[in-house]
Design brief:
By secondary structure, this protein is of the alpha/beta class. It has helices spanning 3-8, 20-36, 48-57, 74-87, 99-107, 135-145, 190-202, 216-225, 240-247, 257-262, 279-282, 302-309, and strands at residues 11-15, 41-46, 62-65, 91-94, 113-116, 123-124, 172-176, 206-209, 230-231, 250-254, 269-273, 289-293. It contains twelve helices and twelve strands. The strands form two sheets. Strands 3-2-1-4-5-6 form a six-stranded parallel sheet. Strand 1, helix 2 and strand 2 form a beta-alpha-beta unit. It is elongated.
Length: 323
């Protein structure tokens, strides 16, 4: 393609800075933006942890990493302003919608279209309903204002892992027993996860533990109760998680990032919530997701999980194999 044609392309900026679960929920809206502006040059502005996901999804032509300048870092603010100006964007889709990105609107030329919740946006979603449901629902509402009517959950089929490296014994069930280190109140007890893993093994499932080093203590406690687990703590990449989910009989976990990457694949997913997190706003999205809610997680027993997922030896889930 000639240089002249490249210059003539419509330029679009999408802003999504984090976090992991929110980024995954935004991938469907990102795909819809790509489909709507099929011939445009689309840039993603994100933070370093999510730049690789932005590249892999295939929805963007360019990735910019936002260093998120501090308030009095005038040099960095001037550089960001110049970069945005030089980008010559016709339209910006704000999928972050926070105070920082609202300020970014002020750094752009006034003629730039802005689709988002920021005051002064040309296509502003000021409805109180925007934040009543999931971030995905809010994005869908906002994109509709910008002329994009169809937004679907992204099944993450673009995320390919290397799960052949793991000692998987099918059928297996994924367990995500952790959470962000600063939100440990969202965790169901490791002791009950251990009992659940032991029951799964007794029915012929291989329990597979997911997590980072932040979940090491949780997974060690589960493994003490059920030594037969496959412990993948700190052994999986982000791309491995959806790949594992596509082959899994089921997945069980707390309100945590990995469950947001498992649910969109269609894996039967049971996600545990308590009063410390609102499932209406934060539940993982997918066509086979069951939410178990207890005000106090201490009242939830492993048997309740089995009743919810119907994990019995006769269930078809046991027949799932890899082709």
């Amino acid at each position: 393609m000639s240089t002249e044609k490249n210059k003539a392309k419509e330029k679009i900026l999408v802003i999504k800075l984090g976090a992991l679960g929110d980024f995954i929920q935004a991938s469907g809206p990102m795909k819809a933006i790509r489909g709507h502006h099929i011939d445009a040059h689309i840039t993603l502005l994100t933070t370093k942890p999510y730049a690789n996901l932005g590249k892999k999804c295939g929805y963007f032509d360019d990735i910019w990493v936002d260093t998120k300048p501090r308030l009095f870092d005038l040099k960095s603010w001037r550089a960001l302003r110049q970069r945005l100006k030089n980008g010559a964007f016709k339209r910006v889709y704000d999928l972050q919608n926070n105070d920082r990105t609202s300020f970014y609107l002020r750094l752009l030329p006034k003629k730039t279209e802005w689709v988002g919740a920021a005051k002064g946006a040309s296509h502003r979603n000021s409805s109180p309903d925007r934040t009543k449901g999931s971030s995905f629902d809010g994005h869908a509402q906002t994109l509709k204002i910008g002329g994009i009517d169809t937004v679907e959950i992204d099944d993450l089929s673009w995320m390919h892992g290397h799960i052949e490296q793991f000692d998987l014994k099918r059928p297996y069930v994924l367990i995500a027993g952790g959470s962000a280190p600063d939100r440990k109140e969202k965790r169901w007890s490791a002791e009950k996860y251990g009992r659940l893993a032991r029951m799964l093994h007794g029915l012929g499932f291989q329990p597979v533990l997911l997590g980072t080093m932040a979940e090491l203590d949780v997974n060690l406690a589960i493994r003490k109760i059920c030594p037969q687990v496959l412990d993948l703590t700190a052994k999986t990449s982000l791309n491995d998680i959806p790949a594992l989910a596509r082959e899994a009989a089921a997945a069980i976990g707390n309100d945590t990032g990995p469950m947001h990457m498992i649910a969109p694949t269609g894996c039967p997913s049971c996600v545990i919530f308590s009063r410390h997190s609102n499932p209406k706003r934060h539940a993982p999205l997918g066509n086979n997701v069951t939410i178990i809610y207890r005000e106090e997680l201490s009242t939830l027993e492993p048997e309740d999980i089995f009743k919810t997922l119907d994990l019995t030896p006769e269930h078809d889930i046991l027949k799932k194999t890899v082709h």
